Amino acid sequence: MSAGSTLPARSSILFGMLLRWSALGVLARLLAVAGSGCTFVGDLGQDSMSAGGSAGGSDDGVGEGGDATDGDVDTTLPMLPPLTNVRVRIVGDAANITFDAVDAAVDYRVYALPPNDAIHVGGDGVIVIDDGLYRCAGQREALYMLEDIVSPDEGWNDVAAGGATLVERQVVGFTRTEGDAELGHVYLTEAADRLPVYALADPDVEDDGAVACGRPTFVASRAHQYTADAAVRDALVAQRWRDDGIAFWVPMIAGAATRPIYEASLVDDALLRWIDGPEATARGPGTTILQVLREPEPGTVPLMRVHVQPYCGRAHDELVAGLAGFRRVRRQGDQPLPALRWSGLTGPITLVAEALDQGCPYQGILSPQGEPAFVDEGAPHEAYVTLAQMRAASPSGEVFVNGQYDDPPPARAIRRSFITVAPSLPTMDVYATFPEDEDFFAGFAAPTGSVYGLHFDAPMYLMSSYSNSHVHFGSMLGEFWLAYNDIAAGVNGMVRLGIDAPARVDAGSYLHVTGEVGALTTDRRFPQLFISDQPAPLQDNLASGTTVIVGPRRYAPSFIDLQICDHMTWDLGYECAGLPTFAADAAPQVAPIADTAGSDNAVQLDVYLSPSRIYLLLDGKPYACTDLPALADDGVAHGPPVGDVRIAWGDVLAHSAIDFTLGGGPLTVPDSYGFHRRHLPTTTQRHFDNLGVSSGVAAPPWDEVQVPCSGGP
Fold first, then answer.
1. Cα–chain-centroid distance for residue 707?
2. Beta strand pairing status for 399-401 and 133-136?
3. d(CA 558, CA 692)
4. pLDDT at residue 657, rounded to an integer
5. pLDDT confidence tier of residue 587, bands split at 50, 70 and 90
6. I want to staple 370 with a disulfide (CB 3.0 to 4.6 A). Which of 37, 137, 386, 520 is the partner?
7. In what helix (H) or strand (E) does residue 677 lie, and over which residues does it extend?
């Protein structure tokens, strides 16, 4: 077993009853900004938040993303076109940033705006920042779709695929070419003479793929209806169509510069779209749904078409704005992820978000404590490397968190936006933000036990490691980080961080538990949240009581698992009963997690639990609710823990030597979980942040028509 030093220090946590816990002396300086758990700026479609793309940001909606100037930002960074539709979601002390994918981008990064004397611009356009710290997006790692492979072609029934996409193939009697995939041109940003086109996903639960057959599910797996009519959009949302926001903008007035897009449902209910030309001649008349530009204009991107055939779902044509989106929908798998994260906010700060023409360099397995490379019973492991070690080894002193590319050429920014953000901390009984100026690990005593059950005790926490030969944990970048490996890459390794603070589940109110967690998962590596009526260490005591377990899991995770351990323990392969989450006639109203599953981003999970109901929210949006007791998949009705409860966040890495295998064989395609298969096949990282607990709160706002509850006795 390996872990870092054990110097005394305090844990980092906010308490609603601050006077009672004043001896802890933690984070009082941030109480002045305490407020809601998350804040948004601007609006784009369904909960799409915009900070603008111009230098200095904007709070006036989407706009054009700003012009190619630095506005009121005092910087010597060169002028570049901005990112478009920049959206910022603040959770506690973290900024979660998304934006439109850039066709030529290989990677994206975010960093704090540096002083001008720290910026060095080379003749080749490469920028070096003295002691720069960047957080890079890396790849969205996931399973994939087969390209132009259908039954009875060899390989058509691939258990690692979510189905097939057809671009250069016959589609319902007409043979399409790649040139046919471009239907016209559309805008990514709004203007007075443009109409937004809304994308609404079919609510048929059988059309959701993973619910029906357990295959990978992406946003594009469900057939979409596209409309520029806000009234039609509202009517579809009222009928439980998933609101996927604004897909693109089109000219407000049709004319000689535009062309129609037609639509019809044909053989086997396949939903097809086409334009005038040979395919229109073959198909016959269809319904005109949109008018798009015939030729490119400034600010436009190609409107692309991909025919999607999920294994379990309706075949349909997807409309995608831009080549990056086209590549993503066509193949899925590993793709540059247009999402960034910056945590540890202590006050207002200007961030710089950039699209890059090369990937961020890989600098090692980032860990709270360092450790040289080692071999664990025949299983080789790369070194665990700290931020300080990365900086010392970097010729420029720069650190690239989540760099995933091996020896890439120096990257040049091709788009750049400036975003001003600030923390927004909610008032809760407990709220842990893991600030950078406090050493979380140092508050833990020397461990007790063995590698099969190793326990680190601190005044407000109990950290437990099970069957891990090397485990590192602590605070970095304003987050709680884990880096560890299961023994010999061949056992069920687990980690549990128990929070020793009062919490209750009582009739007439709810227990609220919230937190952000890295969402990249497989069948054998995933995070968990525990709510239990048993004392810590929870894993050792599960069989003596009742515990609810919540968390995202499986490859290209599509759904949140909800399990209940009713006087039984939990282990991978010997799991607790699964509770229902979605009503039988209601497909999920939130986008699948798989579309944003990167190594350095996070999802916010909120759980509201009472004796009679549990609500789940994902990134602040209603996800699912279950009436309790509920009939579980073991055929028994189970109720939740009640009264005094304890909370723990956990992680699993189980038999990692056989991770990245499906259907009895390993993943072999290079563009599916490629980074993890190269550098983290038998090691895992996970980061958590903004962990909060409050008892006796009201239920969250909930529309039971839109998101009906399942379960019940």
1. 21
2. parallel
3. 24
4. 95
5. confident
6. 386
7. helix 674-679
Tens of pLDDT, residue by residue over 184-228, are 999 999 999 999 999 999 988 776 655 556 788 899 999 999 999
Token look-up 């525990």 returns 530
Structure-block tokens of residue 308: 């999607």
Which residue bears the tokens 């009928």?
239
Helix (H) or strand (E) holding 468: strand 468-476
Structure token digits, residue 591:
């986008």
pLDDT tens for each residue of 521-554: 999 999 999 999 999 999 999 999 999 999 998 8
Query: How far, in Å, are 93, 434, 528, 542, 648 from residue 565 at the CA level?
Result: 33, 30, 13, 7, 14
643-665 residue pLDDT tens: 999 999 999 999 999 999 987 78
Q: Residue 306 is encoded by which pair of tokens?
A: 């991909």
Interior angle at CA 618, CA 612 and CA 622, nearest 5: 55
- Kindly state the DSSP code that residue 299 receives in the 8-state scheme: T
Cβ contacts of 79 within 8 Å, gap of 6 or more: 68, 69, 70
Mean pLDDT of 692-711: 95
| Inter-CA distances, 19 with 15, 115, 438, 578, 711, Å | 9, 39, 20, 41, 41
Helix (H, G, I), strand (E, B) or coil at 297: coil
**Cα–chain center distance at 696:** 29
Q: Whose CA is closest to 482, among 464, 500, 457?
A: 464
Question: Given this model, what pLDDT does residue 341 score?
Answer: 98
Burial class (CB within 10 angstroms; exposed 0-12, middle 13-18, buried 19+) of 408: middle
Q: What is d(CA 624, CA 614) in angstroms, rounded to the nearest whole number?
A: 8
The pLDDT of residue 56 is 25
| DSSP state at residue 83 | P
Quote the CA–CA distance of 78 and 634 in Å, as a whole number: 61
